[in-house]
Amino acid sequence: MNKASEQAVNIVAGLGEAKLSKGQETFNALTGQIEERRARLLIWEEMRPTFQKKYVDVLLPLQRESTDLQVKMVHLLNDAFDNKSLTKGERRALSDLIAEMAGRLVDACDDVAVKAIYNMHSRSDYDSETVVELDVESPTPDAVLGIEAGDDGDFDSPDELLRRLDAEIQARDDARERAKEARRAARKQSSPKKRAAQTLQDSAQAELSKSIRQVYRKLASALHPDRELDTQERLRKTALMQRANLAYKKKDLLTLLALQLELEHITQQALSGISEDRLQHYNKILQEQIGELDEEIQHVERGFRQAYGIPPSTDVSPDTVLRSLQKEVVMLQRYISDLAGSLRLFEDIERLKDSLGQMKRMGR
To answer: Within a 10 A sphere around the Cβ of 341, how many other Cβ atoms?
Structure first.
């Protein structure tokens, strides 16, 4: 996706002209918006491996360490519960604390002993509560993603989960596209007025495709590698032809024009002299490209949220996700340090009793 080698496609005022026409200004504005979106996608592409490595190598081990310490804490507090020096009030406060901690942990780790401790101190049954919640809650993420119950897929791997999410999202996009085509087909069979409008729209779309095809044909003629005798130049033109083929397949007018400038197959003067009618067609194509890039950005960011469990309320952008990850790492490190200190402290029953008293005074 690196466009560093491509020249910027921008129209400048022609010789003797004071300013750009409205169509030329629109063209420049649209090409600028496309470059901004391409830059955003490129940043996502470059940032993603860095984020994933830190997530897997740093955050996940910290999360496991935190969970292990919390399990130790639940067992420590549960052992202390039977200490005869505790008053009824202290025992009740301790039981509430154990139920709260164990309840959070059962979701994080499949620990039968922790579940039994939760059931004892909550005077309830975790499995029964879960069944009730599933009856009233919205579909689970697995159901939304089409993952069958009992799947043995290795979703501990962010890469694997991301690939699965991408496939699911792509399948939905394809389904929406098929539905759109079906609606178009239905419109063609509707009233004469609607059929006329559809014919006009199809004609306009054909004209846009023709504009792209004309640019591509000029490039293909200039780049044809079989016509080049020099080996190095043939290799260069082969690589450029591959870029042109990909751009044509994606209806990427901006890249095709950039390749023309790179080859000097079209001069800046010729670009500035494009007719208003032709510019109008070009601008429609560029607007479509912007829409497609916006969809691609949404697809990337939606998949990123789902892969890493980022809630909708949290901002997701290439500029913020690494900072957010680092912030979460620091918070976890502090929590682990505090938890390890509390574990050592609560081995002394008198200090545990003091902490329970402080919690009671604070209204917990």
So the answer is: 10
Token digits for 25?
Answer: 């200004």
Cβ atoms < 10 Å from Cβ of 34: 22
Confirm if 60 and 108 have CB atoms less than 8 A apart.
no
Residues 6+ apart with CB under 8 A from 247: 216, 255, 256, 259
Q: In whole angstroms, what is the distance from residue 248 CA to residue 256 CA?
A: 7
Q: Are 351 and 345 in contact (CB under 8 A)?
A: yes
Question: Which residues, 6+ apart, have CB-to-CB distance to 149 below 8 Å?
Answer: 142
CA pair distance 77, 343, nearest whole angstrom:
9
Tens of pLDDT, residue by residue over 317-364, are 888 899 989 999 999 999 999 999 999 998 999 998 888 888 777 655
Tally of CB atoms within 10 A around 312 = 7
Alpha carbon 258 to its chain's center? 29
What single DSSP character describes residue 55? I
Helices then strands, counting H and E runs in the chain, come out as 14, 0
**Nearest to 48, CA basis, from 355, 317, 359, 236:** 317
Tokens read off for 121: 């101190």
For residues 260 and 246, the answer to whether their CB atoms sit within 8 Å is no
Full-model pTM: 0.59
Q: What confidence tens digit (pLDDT) does each residue in 107-124 have?
A: 778 788 998 998 999 877
Alpha carbons within 13 angstroms on the beta-carbon side of residue 339 total 21
Count of other CB atoms within 10 angstroms of residue 286: 23
Determine contact, residues 117/78, Cβ cutoff 8 Å.
yes
Q: What angle do CA 71, 75, 77 make, to 5 degrees?
A: 115
Distance CA 117, CA 300 (A): 42
- What amino acid occupies position 352? L
Evaluate whether 254 touches 289 at the Cβ level (below 8 Å): yes
Specify whether the CB–CB gap between 94 and 77 falls below 8 A.
yes
